[in-house]
């Protein structure tokens, strides 16, 4: 019996080994087949776990944009190479995988710039490595990193510690958390006439950043901040938390965090204890945007969501290249992108492509295009978000800082009004 | 030791290398071979060859695997030698990592301490040389090993596992939530501490692309851990660990100080965990609390069990293979498979299915691991006393094949505890 088992095991192992060999031969051949004037843009996203849909939509939208424009950036042909920075075991981005991807971006000689990452934490690992590229620094443009510290003074040593070579190499096309938190607070004070707000954060980089920004701006706007407390993402219910909050008698609750972090239960218990969202206003940042589960939640109706950018609905109404891309996307995939970040992925790609167009095709030159002279500027009629977009050559931050205020009504995120911030 | 040499020599005639020199030479040879391959051979290969190695065996993956090896070797001391099931070993990895984060970065910007550090002298923060941090991290973790070990001393098997599991959950939680401990930011919360200073050797600093040198450093750390493990195993302490593992009661009856021996197992194991943590922080270039979750402890345990509990080389093999499969092998196999057959199967998401399947098969057909410790194999393949007696065997009579195997082993086999173990043959299988 045991001998049969051994034979079986041997066969199984041998089979695996053979199939592995068969696979790698083709993988190697395919990768080395490109040449000539083709430049590769690395796309670094978490393709597994909770962010999977958002990442896939982003890749699809970018590829679609390349197809529409003939993949041309000046005299160069552009190709995407997608890297996964998540692991199945974690179901989220993984620090070691980010470190490995950083090495791969630099090691892959055809690659000239990186679009990504989705998570600010991952960018904090990758950016310093790309910055020290001996043939670079290598350009990195993110569509979704909203942590302020990556481009401006925030925590101690930021942002200089991400650029050991002394030159900047990181840019982004999205407004940072501080703008969004501030916009949320201004909206609460001016439009909702809130007087006393309670802030709950999910204790993560993003949530803490937005929460801190909301708190600071709220105080300036004359709102009394009753507390800024973390919610434990692993709790089965938050009745006790909201009961203690109820005694402080707030008229607005700000959820600084991501819906994935047990946001559904949080909202349910908020309504259960504090009452519905017309009585005690519920405001959330874009960490709660783009989740059908949240939109469909009965208790979430009436909640306000701020979004650091413009949503698909607004962009489609505005017309222009954004609407064209959205229509093509809907035609090909049957629905709008799962996240508005997909369009910002395309925006980041536009920035990289313009840098490539102006450059001589080397990494160093491409990065210099973004961080010298007047930097990158995409005119309104070309820009996918429908507005003129400038990247500051000093910091790599974006000039367009649209914050949209949305309201959940009839299980849909309805656009309420734009909230310009300076 | 003396009886060992002739028996080995008999098996390998013509090899004049003394037994004690064999592993260091073999290990060095393997390490140097890999070094030469990545230093000379691979950079000079054609584009196809380079792409192949970058896809299938990048040096980053090897370095990461070495960190796993160091950590698994530490767990091997606790689980493999002393038989104390530890489900929270990730705690030491985290503690080591944060030691590096604290002492090798600008995180504590209130102070400015530079001790041979890898940063310019004007930068605020604590910047201590990587080599010193290795020592500090090892010592810090040894201390925590004792602290965590102390409450578990009175516990056995399941209860012990649960308490270690508890500590393995507590410590990463402390790091995640430690950004406001009475107003003091100890760990920077979920943002973690990035970036960590580069490794410095003399006045040169290893940049992010000096992977070959980093590889050599990690190999060196692993070698030190192997050396410590092997020397301890043959010594008084190691034999005491084995005695506790085989039969705690009998060991204490024979005068093995249980408390001291167990605590030292935790401490020595934790040292390896701490070294791995410091090495990993420099590998990633930062330390983030997200990583330190339960699945790391389980993966480490799987490495030890699959490789061969108690056998240093088995554990090393298990760690290298599993770490590679996790980080590179499976995703790469998946993408190649999908390209070849035009499918869209997400192979990495079947990771744990594969692990689970392998574990079940291994436990059914080769419980002792890929490269088992000879003692474990002996015990596992011997029927339990009741089984033998039911077949009419006289347990008091000497079993010739057991005696021979025992003398093939080390001199420990002649110790009184072991004689008792092999003689009665209590079902070791139930404990594993």
Automatic annotation (TrEMBL), chain A:
Pfam families: Peripla_BP_6 (PF13458). Residues 40-369 form the Leucine-binding protein domain. It comes from the Bacteria. This is Amino acid ABC transporter substrate-binding protein. It comes from Streptomyces sporangiiformans. Keywords: Signal. The lineage of its organism: Bacteria, Bacillati, Actinomycetota, Actinomycetes, Kitasatosporales. The keyword tRNA-binding does not apply. Belongs to the leucine-binding protein family. Residues 1-25 form the signal peptide.
